[in-house]
Amino acid sequence: MAMEEEDALPRRRKRLEPLVLDPLGVEELQAYISELRAEVARAEAEITRKQQHRSAADAFFRKN
């Protein structure tokens, strides 16, 4: 059971592998940029969500 739980956890990525850009045309490069921007926006939204969650927890446990 413990192994199944470990398998369900997201794995940390080491780094994004750079894409070889030479063989791509302009439209493919623009599509690639759009995908990257969407991923950045997704990561930024997750950061915002986590910061809000942390702020709410801090406010809840703050001593007066």
Please give a structural write-up.
- The structure is a single chain.
- The longest helix is centred in the C-terminal third of the chain and has 36 residues, at 26-61.
- The mean pLDDT is 87.
- This protein starts with a helix and ends with a helix.
- The chain has helices at residues 2-8, 26-61.
- With 64 residues, it is mainly alpha-helical.
- It is elongated and about 60 Å long.
- The protein contains 2 helices and no strands.
Largest sheet: none
The poorly predicted ranges are none
Percent in helix: 55-70%
Mean pLDDT: 87
How much of the sequence is in beta strands? under 5%
**Which of globular, elongated, flat, extended, rod-shaped describes the shape?**
elongated
Q: Tell me how many strands there are.
A: 0
Q: Please tally the helical runs, counting DSSP H or I stretches of 4 or more residues.
A: 2
Helix/strand layout:
Elements: H1 2-8, H2 26-61
Any descriptors?
single chain; 2 helices; mainly alpha; 64 residues
Give a summary of the structure in a few sentences.
The protein is mainly alpha-helical and 64 residues long. It contains two helices and no strands.
